Automatic annotation (TrEMBL):
One of its GO terms (biological process) is fructose 6-phosphate metabolic process. This is ATP-dependent 6-phosphofructokinase. GO terms for cellular component: 6-phosphofructokinase complex. Mg(2+) binds at D103. ADP binds at R21, G22, V23, V24, R25, K155, G186, A187, E188, R212, K214, A215, S216. Keywords: Allosteric enzyme, ATP-binding, Cytoplasm, Glycolysis, Kinase, Magnesium, Metal-binding, Nucleotide-binding, Transferase. It is found in: Cytoplasm. It catalyses: beta-D-fructose 6-phosphate + ATP = beta-D-fructose 1,6-bisphosphate + ADP + H(+). Catalyzes the phosphorylation of D-fructose 6-phosphate to fructose 1,6-bisphosphate by ATP, the first committing step of glycolysis. ATP binds at G11, R72, C73, G102, D103, G104, S105. Allosterically activated by ADP and other diphosphonucleosides, and allosterically inhibited by phosphoenolpyruvate. Pfam families: PFK. Homotetramer.
Amino acid sequence: MKRIGVLTSGGDAPGMNAAIRGVVRTAFAHKLEVYGIFRGYTGLINDDLKPLTHRSVSNIINRGGTILKTSRCPEFMTKEGQKRAVEILQRNSIDALVVIGGDGSYRGAQILAREWHIPCVGLPGTIDNDLNGTDRTIGSDTAVETALDAIDKIKDTVNSMERIFVVEVMGHHSGYIALKSALAGGAEQVLIPEVKFDIQDICHEITEGYIRGKASWIIVVAEGAIKGMELARQITEITDLETRVVVLGHIQRGGSPTAEDRILGNRLGAAGVELLIKGVSGVAVGVLNDQVHVVDFEEALRPVTFDTKEDLRLIKLLT
Ligand code: ADP
C-alpha cells in the first residue's frame, strides 16, 4: 500500500479536522502518501481530490468544520455512482480509504469494502453519538458543550423573568445531545425520540409547580421528539402560561472542538491508518472504555441502545 485517500461525509462535526490531521500525520510517519477527497463521496465521483502535505493539516486541530468540506451525495447510492467512484480511486492509484462520517457515510464505505473490494475504514464523525461499537463519536462532546452553554445563558434569563422556556436541540433520531445537556444544565424536563412522553403529564407538573410558586422551567427537546414551536404552542394552550422557544440549530455543529473531541479525532485517525496498514478493511474504529475498539460496519450500524434511564431518573430526581 502506497497511497490512501481520506474524506469527510454527511453532517459535519467538530473534531473532524483533528481526525484528518491524525490520518495524514500517521500516514506520513509510515511513509504513505495521502490524497484529500473533497465534499465526501461527491468529490470521489467528480475526481475532486488533491495530494495533502504535512503542512496541509497544520493549525487545523483547533478548528470546527472540515477542511475537506462535506456533502450528501445521492448519486453515490446508485451502482453507476459507485462504479465511477471506484474508477476515480483506481485512476489516482489510491489503495485504501478512510471515511469520516455518520451512519450514512458508513453505509457507503461498507458497500465500497464489501462489493467493490476497496480497503476501507470508517471513523465516527457525527454530533449525534448514534453509532454502535464506540462510547463516543467525534463531535458529540463539543455539541453537548455548545448546547449546555446556551442552556446556561437561557437559565439566567428564565430565572429572572420567571418563564417557561423550550430549548430545541439537534437529534432527529438520537436524544444524546438533549439528554446530556439537560442533565448538565439542570433542566426540569427533557424530551427525546427514544422515550414516549405525554404532554398532559408535563403540563400537569408545570401547573402544579406554578401553584407551589415555581414559575421557571427549562424543557430541553430533541428535534426528533417534537418540534420546539409545537411543544410551546401546546403547553401554552393547556396551561395558559406564556412559553418561549429557542431553537439552537446549526450553532451546535460549529465551534472549536473540545479537548475530548480533538483527542478522539487524533487517536482514531491514527488507529484507522494503522489498521489499513495491517490489511484490515470493512471496519469502523471507535473507543470503548477508553480503549480503541474495532467493529465491522454491520455491527457499527446496528441500532444504538444507549441507556437513557439513569439520566432521565436523575433529571426527575434533582428537579
Ligand atoms: P451521515 O454520514 O452524517 O449519516 P448521510 O446519511 O447523509 O450522513 O450520508 C452521507 C452520504 O453517504 C450520503 O449522501 C450518500 O452519499 C452516502 N450513503 C448514505 N447511505 C448510503 C447507502 N445506503 N449506500 C451508499 N451510500 C450511502
